[in-house]
Write a structure and sequence with these properties.
By secondary structure, this protein is mainly alpha-helical. The protein has one domain. The chain is elongated and about 115 Å long. The protein starts with 13 loop residues before the first helix and ends in a 5-residue tail after the last helix.
């Protein structure tokens, strides 16, 4: 708050009045200038901190995306093997064999910095092109986050469908309570209808894993682009599409060869 103090004695001449007026005006201008200078440097500090935090969160999401891609690949392959076994067993008129389940943990991509910046209003400190670029990036982050819920839902359905095939039912309650691995499945215990339900659940889980790979590859591509200074929406979209094409042709190794992790 600016305090303006009156003169100690009344102005007796026009000259004195003008001096007092000029003194007041000059004092106000100096105070306003100092206040705006302090605010400028405060906002500048906030901007640099926000940019550093977004950069750190971006680096973390690159690693999360790679981990989720790897986990989804393992799960998709296990599901593909099991699904193929269901089909082949049906053709051979026999009970299918059960493949070991893949217990894989997924990590939600980080978005805390972006959320806090939105709620606090500090996003307004970013240049417009930077804000638009990060908005596109965190839109992809949200799709990747949603995939974690979809993966867990598909896994729950698959687990429920396979429960009638547990080979040691008395041990099941304790194993579920302690979080230990389930006993082996004996798919010969399933009725034809239960076999179809289990096959469909495995197929859904396989498709969900494929979607998880897609969105985490997209996330890796656009995150890499933004971290390397791109503020062009067109370039960012082109990069994440290119990342998907490279991954499709050569897997994670090819992706990292073209878009390596920052040092």
């Amino acid at each position: 708050m600016l305090d303006v103090h009156p003169p100690h004695h009344a102005a007796t001449t026009r000259h004195d009045f003008l001096i007092h007026l000029a003194t007041i005006v000059l004092g106000l201008l100096i105070a306003i200038g100092l206040e705006q200078t302090v605010e400028y440097f405060h906002h500048r500090h906030q901007l640099h901190q926000l940019e550093a935090d977004l950069h750190t969160e971006g680096i973390r999401n690159l690693h999360i995306a790679l981990d989720n891609i790897h986990g989804s690949e393992l799960r998709r392959q296990s599901d593909a093997d099991q699904y193929a076994e269901f089909l082949q067993a049906a053709r051979d008129h026999r009970a299918p064999a059960a493949y070991p389940s893949q217990y894989i943990f997924y990590t939600k991509p980080a978005f805390a910095v972006w959320t806090v910046a939105q709620q606090s209003g500090t996003l307004g400190l970013l240049p417009r092109e930077d804000a638009l670029s990060y908005a596109r990036l965190y839109g992809v982050v949200q799709y990747a986050v949603d995939q974690v819920k979809a993966i867990n839902t598909a896994l729950d359905r698959k687990s429920v469908a396979m429960l009638p095939a547990v080979s040691d039912p008395p041990a099941l309650p304790k194993l579920l309570q302690t979080g230990q691995a389930l006993p082996a499945y004996d798919l010969s215990l399933l009725s034809p209808e239960e076999l179809r339900e289990a096959r469909d659940a495995v197929g859904e889980d396989m498709a969900t894993s494929r979607q998880s790979i897609k969105w985490n590859v997209y996330l890796y591509g656009i995150d890499w682009s933004v971290l390397h200074g791109s503020r062009s929406d067109e370039d960012n979209v082109r990069t994440f599409n290119d990342a998907m094409n490279i991954y499709t042709q050569g897997g994670t190794a090819a992706l990292l060869a073209k878009y390596p992790l920052p040092d």
